[in-house]
Amino acid sequence: MSSTKAASDIDRQIAARIRIARLESGLSQEKLAEALGITFQQVQKYEKGMNRVSAGRLREIADTLGRDITWFFEEMPSFESYPTLSKADLRMLRNLKALPADTRRAVDALLATLNPKLEPVE
User: Fold this and answer.
1) What is the phi-psi region of residue 89: left when phi exceeds 0, alpha when psi lies from -120 to 50, beta otherwise?
2) What CA–CA distances, in Å, run from 116 to 52, 81, 108, 119?
3) What's the pLDDT score for residue 79?
4) How far is Cα 33 from Cα 61, in angstroms, rounded to an integer?
């Protein structure tokens, strides 16, 4: 029997999305912790899925990072298929998101021609 306090796959998926949202917003773990009134070590534990995030704390995190709380649950794949993104990957995603939609589509089309295994986004 597993402990009810242990983080589940869903907890780890939310943890990964907290990290993504924090990095996309340009906040350090220290700045997020300061805004939440907790230690940066606690933020690290949340982001690694070592500690579960309560509903109330997730709401505070969502508000601080400018996300709707439902974003943390959207299109949630299984944990095994959730990619581990490096800082460079996240920086690239942040830069792509800053581009106009037509430019993003053009970049996507270019990537698809460079790697035919990729499916372009419609």
Assistant:
1) alpha
2) 40, 21, 12, 8
3) 47
4) 9
In 1-122, the DSSP E strands lie at none
Q: How far is CA 3 from the centre of its chain?
A: 26
Residues 6+ apart with CB under 8 A from 112: 118, 119, 120
- Chain-centre distance for alpha carbon 99: 19
CA distance 88 to 86: 5
Residue tagged 């970049």 (tokens): 107
Summarised one tens digit per residue, pLDDT across range 5-28 is: 666 778 888 999 999 999 989 999
| Three-point CA angle 39, 90, 14, nearest 5° | 55
Query: Does 41 have pLDDT greater than 50?
Result: yes
